[in-house]
Design goal:
The protein is α/β, with parallel strands linked by helices. The protein folds into 2 domains: 2-137 and 272-288, Glycogen Phosphorylase B (Rossmann fold); 149-269, Glycogen Phosphorylase B (Rossmann fold). It has helices spanning 21-31, 47-54, 64-76, 104-112, 122-127, 163-172, 188-193, 208-215, 241-250, 252-269, 273-288, and strands at residues 2-6, 35-39, 58-62, 89-93, 116-119, 132-133, 149-154, 177-180, 195-200, 220-223, 236-238. It has a 6-stranded parallel beta sheet with strand order 2-1-3-4-5-6, sandwiched between helices. Helix 1 crosses helix 11 (273-288), helix 3 (64-76) packs across helix 4 (104-112) and helix 8 packs across helix 10 (252-269).
Amino acid sequence: MRILIITHDKFQYLQQQKKMRWTRLPYHFSKLAHDVRYVTKKEWLLYPFIYISFRPEVVISAGKIAGLITALHYKFNYLRLFTLFKKTLFVHDLTDHPHFYINERRIRFIVRNHDLITTPTQYNLEKYDCNELVPNGSDFIPLKAKIEYDACYIGQVHDFYNTTQLEEDCKNAGINLKIVTGLPSEEVPKYVAASKICVYTISWDSSLKITDYAAMAKPVVAVKPNLAEKIGYPAYYTENLADGIKYLLKHPKLAEKFGKKNRQWFLRYSGTWHEQSIKYLNVLERYKYK
């Protein structure tokens, strides 16, 4: 397939240090012998010309601006004149929880103006009537390492993630917490492996954190209430994360049990990025010939 992908990323896969869903999936599409053209943020204005010259069979967008670009393209239909009379499949991947950064009207517009809406989250699948659920993957594997931290958190540290409060609570509770942020994805596993417990501070059910933690068979303390419970994610849910960490530290056998369950959940529900890419491509094949 010729697949045109437009996202908010600034760099291609090999240049991207923090490899997210739509840097990883296109890379694996290419590895699986598909012809992929990746439109980065700096190329948005060139999208019409890239579309005309590339003549894709499938167009996939991810992100609020990219999704708007392809939704407008789909709605007004002008550029389809250049597809040599072959219908292009327009796809939008509704990642994370878009209501935090896109107003409802725009989300509904994007969902309405694509042939296929995919998502990695059960919440979006139900709330926005998405067509297909394809969870995130992870290429992390369980590692043996010398334990250096009681707990670790990986990911962004914006206010939304409540990491400042987590640090303060852990300090007051005498918990040795490691915050892992701003590192290339490939460097993260060694810090996770060196921690007894991992921490999940938000209530989303699609963050890359949960699949990465699970892939490494780590016990997780997660904030409650949490949408991750809806997909059966086996964490120790608690309203106070520091108290939850202390509880699992005092009950190592229970922590070990959570870690094993997490790995089993990962193998059953998720899988590697290569495996998720195959799932996504199978979805595209089904809808392309509808």
